[in-house]
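Hey Z.,

So I finally got round to the NAP thing we talked about over coffee. Here's the setup:
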Amino acid sequence: MKPKLVFVAAVARNGVIGADARTPWRLKSDLVRFRELTWGRPLLMGRRTFESIGRPLPGRETVALSRDPEFRPEGAHLARSLEEALDRATRLAEAMKAPEIIVAGGAQIYSAFLSRAEVIHLTEVALTVAGDARFPALDPGEWRVTARETPLRAAEDEADFEYLRLERK
Ligand SMILES: NC(=O)c1ccc[n+]([C@@H]2O[C@H](COP(=O)([O-])OP(=O)(O)OC[C@H]3O[C@@H](n4cnc5c(N)ncnc54)[C@H](OP(=O)(O)O)[C@@H]3O)[C@@H](O)[C@H]2O)c1
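And the result:
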């Protein structure tokens, strides 16, 4: 069966997802959730996000997108185009018996794959922050919220947040 293309993203009230190549908040609970949602699955991410994480994430296979001929992502698979990335991730999903391919950002990569996304796991972060990377605008005519959860804020969480599941209408 063809794996689903699933986004996982944490987004501030004003749409910001990143500032100066990093995430502008610390939410320990959301990192744990990211691990749970992505475990055992192939991840697609842009070169900037790959470099910002600084290492391939354990328990997953990363496909890093770049057009830079010099770029060699250590411990990850390289893709030079969206199609190559999807082909590679689809083959990895088959080998891993994973039902989903995860699109893990950043802004360029979310925008590029949005038209093909089937599910979005969105963490709505109750902050308005400055930043240079934004999640693409979602057309309310195309997406519906199918689940919403307000988890308890843990000591290591810098803000309140909600977990939303969106599915394409
Ligand atoms: N809050 C969240 O959930 C979340 C998640 C992920 C990332 N982030 C944040 O998002 C920010 C990074 O986002 P970003 O938009 O600046 O960068 P990005 O999407 O991570 O990476 C962009 C890079 O991907 C490559 N690329 C883009 N389109 C491509 C294509 N069609 N074919 C081949 N390669 C392609 C290019 O690499 P080359 O320049 O090497 O050619 C481009 O510079 C950071 O601040 C990060 O912390 C936040």
